[in-house]
Write a structure and sequence with these properties.
Helix 3 packs across helix 9. The relative contact order is 0.17. The chain has 264 residues and is α/β, with parallel strands linked by helices. The termini are far apart. It is built from ten helices and 13 strands.
Length: 264
C-alpha cells in the first residue's frame, strides 16, 4: 500500500501538467478588451485637425472620431489616452494603450516593432512657405531655414532630400514647430498638409502656400506586434466604415477632401 507521502510527488506532477495549458494561453489584447469592455486608444492632442483640445477642453478631431468608431465596433467603452509623436509607440509597447490612432504613418522601422491595420484616412507631408519665396525644387531650400517636428515622418523625409546648407530647425512638438514658422523664426515649414491648412486658415496674412511634396503617407492604426486577432477585428471595422461611407464622411468633415482610395 502506498502512503500519502509517497503519492504526493505524483499528485504535484499531475497538478502541474493540468495547469500548463492554462498558463500557456496568455490573454490576447482583443480578449482583454472584450473582457473589460473598455478599450484604451492613444490619440493626439497637438495635431489639428486630427487631434486637438477644443474650447470645451475636450479632445476632438478626425483621429478622436475614428477612435469612437473603433470603440463602437469593438462593443467597448472608449478611454482616450493623449500622446505625442515621440511617446505614442512606447505607450503601445508598455500597455498604456491597446492601440494607436494618432496620425501614424507606415515605414519599415515602425513595422519592425508594431503591426498596422488598413489605412483609415489620407495624409501627406510637404514643405510650405510664403508665396513670395521661390521654392520649385529641393535645391532651392539651400540657405533657407525650415521648421520641422523632431522625429516625425516629415523630419525623416526632409533630412533625406534637403541639400547641404539647409538650416533644419527641429522642435519637440507640432505646436512649437508651427509657432516657430508663424513668428518668423524660420522661412519655411515642413509638416502635414492638414496642419499647414489649419495654420494658413488662422494666419492668412502670411500668404503661405504648398511648395514641395515630401511623402504621401496615409494613416494606419497601430497595434502591438503579434496581436493578429485585434488587427483582424480592426480591419473588419475599417472595411465596414469604408463601405458605409463613414471614413469619407470623417475625411470631408475634418480635411475638406474625400478619403479616396486608401491602401489595405
Amino acid at each position: 500500500m502506498f502512503s500519502p507521502l509517497a503519492r504526493r510527488p505524483a499528485l504535484i506532477a499531475l497538478a502541474v501538467a493540468l495547469a500548463l495549458p492554462l498558463a500557456a494561453h496568455a490573454q490576447s489584447a482583443l480578449e482583454r478588451i472584450q473582457a473589460s469592455k473598455t478599450v484604451k486608444i492613444a490619440i493626439p492632442t497637438d495635431f489639428p485637425p486630427y487631434g486637438f483640445v477644443g474650447t470645451d477642453l475636450k479632445p476632438q478631431g478626425l483621429d478622436v472620431d475614428m477612435a469612437q468608431v473603433v470603440a463602437t465596433g469593438l462593443g467597448a467603452k472608449l478611454e482616450l489616452v493623449p500622446v505625442t509623436s515621440a511617446n505614442r509607440i512606447p505607450y503601445l509597447q508598455t500597455g498604456k494603450a491597446d492601440l494607436v490612432i494618432s496620425t501614424l504613418g507606415k515605414n519599415p522601422e515602425r513595422e519592425a516593432v508594431l503591426d498596422f491595420t488598413s489605412a483609415y484616412s489620407p495624409f501627406f507631408q510637404a514643405v510650405f512657405a510664403p508665396k513670395s519665396m521661390t521654392v520649385k525644387s529641393f535645391a532651392d531650400l539651400a540657405g533657407k531655414s525650415v521648421a520641422v517636428t523632431r522625429g516625425a515622418i516629415e523630419d525623416q523625409e526632409l533630412t533625406k532630400v534637403a541639400p547641404a546648407g539647409t538650416d533644419i530647425k527641429r522642435f519637440e512638438d507640432n505646436n512649437a514647430t508651427v509657432a516657430a514658422f508663424v513668428s518668423g523664426q524660420t522661412q519655411a515649414l515642413a509638416t502635414g498638409a492638414s496642419v499647414a491648412g489649419a495654420m494658413m486658415a488662422k494666419n492668412p496674412q502670411l500668404g503661405t502656400e504648398y511648395k514641395l511634396l515630401l511623402k504621401d503617407s496615409p494613416n494606419f492604426i497601430g497595434v502591438a506586434k503579434g496581436e493578429t486577432a485585434l488587427k483582424d477585428k480592426l480591419n473588419e471595422i475599417i472595411a465596414a466604415a469604408s463601405a458605409s461611407g463613414e471614413l469619407n464622411k470623417l475625411s470631408l468633415k475634418w480635411l475638406g477632401r474625400p478619403a479616396g482610395d486608401l491602401p489595405k
